[in-house]
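#struct-pred
JK: can someone run the complex with iron/sulfur cluster? inputs below
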Amino acid sequence: MESFSAANFKPVVEKCAGCDRIVEQLGNQYCQTYMNPEAKWRLGLCNFATHAKPEIVVTKVRLNPLKAAKRASASKKK
Ligand code: SF4
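RT: done, structure tokens with the ligand placed:
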């Protein structure tokens, strides 16, 4: 396997700790996905991080189909 350091990979940054994409080679930890993990985190969350995910807020809009149909037909009458 080619050495990560030989391929100019930069070691992972502190925020990468816990990520499944970290591989260890010769005592250094590298990211399998990015050559420069620091740059990934400079822009915010690393989008490939397996340990840190942005909160996904799912807002469910509950619609009662019957009421919606009634509303629709009522507005047509006006
Ligand atoms: S995927 Fe992102 S968080 Fe994980 S090791 Fe690579 S740069 Fe770090």
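RT: quick notes.
The two ends are 74 Å apart (CA to CA).
The chain has a mean pLDDT of 86.
JK: thanks, will look after standup
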